[in-house]
Write a structure and sequence with these properties.
The chain contains eleven helices and no strands. The chain is mainly alpha-helical. The protein has two domains: 189 residues, no CATH class; 33 residues, no CATH class. It starts with 15 loop residues before the first helix and ends in a 5-residue tail after the last helix. The protein is rod-shaped.
């Protein structure tokens, strides 16, 4: 008869303290955007995931508990928040560009070239998403250590503790990623502000008006010379001159 292996309880670590400013907020408005909604959404997703992991662990559903707090869950929550922030940033940029274009009466053809494009969206998403570059290795480490933690016996307590520490380290990396994200938002917002300011300084070129004025003035002088008899009129102009008294 095979005796079942006695396993340590899979205790889910408290991650709230490790999330730090992600929970408390930074008090910043990067680029003039209040990001509390996205921040709280991210925190809620992670804390809810930890709660679900505890529920599953209490039912001795160990593998599912580890999966509930695994790499994919963290990354999904992070990417949702980054996407939402990028969408808001570009929506505001698009509104300001449209307002500036209307204010300077930019020709409609040129306005179409100044709208936020899909390429812009992809670029901004990539730049903001790069804020989590140090988060990904930490999450890889969580998944790497979870199988040993799931099967840890009292003699293998170190395996469980290593996984618990990896989860808390991931929470710290998530806080760090958020702080870097705020800086990235500030940078991107500054870029679009400069684009809008350059657009606001645009003025319709005056050279066509100047050219027309010079041509019209030259024609008036030439016509005056013809009417005064100083210059011979070309044949094509003679029919029109009949309307003028000699």
């Amino acid at each position: 008869m095979i005796t079942p292996k006695l396993l340590l309880p899979l205790r889910i670590p408290e991650i709230g303290p490790a999330l730090g400013k992600l929970v408390a907020g930074t008090g910043r408005r990067p680029g003039g955007l209040a990001l509390d909604g996205e921040r709280l959404h991210l925190v809620t997703k992670i804390i809810d995931a930890a709660g679900e992991a505890r529920r599953l662990a209490a039912q001795d559903n160990r593998a599912a508990a580890a999966t509930a707090l695994g790499r994919d869950v963290w990354l999904s929550a992070w990417e949702e928040s980054v996407q939402a922030i990028g969408d808001r940033l570009l929506a505001r940029a698009g509104e300001r560009l449209a307002a500036e274009a209307a204010a300077v009466r930019l020709p409609r053809r040129r306005r179409r070239r100044l709208t936020v494009s899909e390429a812009d969206r992809r670029t901004v998403a990539a730049r903001l998403g790069a804020s989590g570059s140090r988060l990904v290795p930490a999450l890889d480490r969580v998944d790497e250590l979870s199988p040993a933690a799931i099967e840890a016996t009292p003699a293998e307590r170190d395996a469980l503790e290593a996984w618990q520490e990896a989860v808390k380290a991931a929470a710290r990396r998530l806080e760090e990623a958020w702080l870097v994200l705020e800086e990235a938002v500030e940078h991107e917002a500054g870029h679009w502000d400069r684009v809008a300011e350059a657009l606001g300084a645009w003025r319709r070129p005056m050279w066509p008006v100047a050219v027309f004025t010079i041509v019209a003035l030259a024609f008036a002088v030439w016509l005056g010379l013809i009417l005064g008899g100083f210059v011979a009129a070309p044949p094509w102009l003679l029919p029109a001159l009949r309307w003028f008294p000699a």
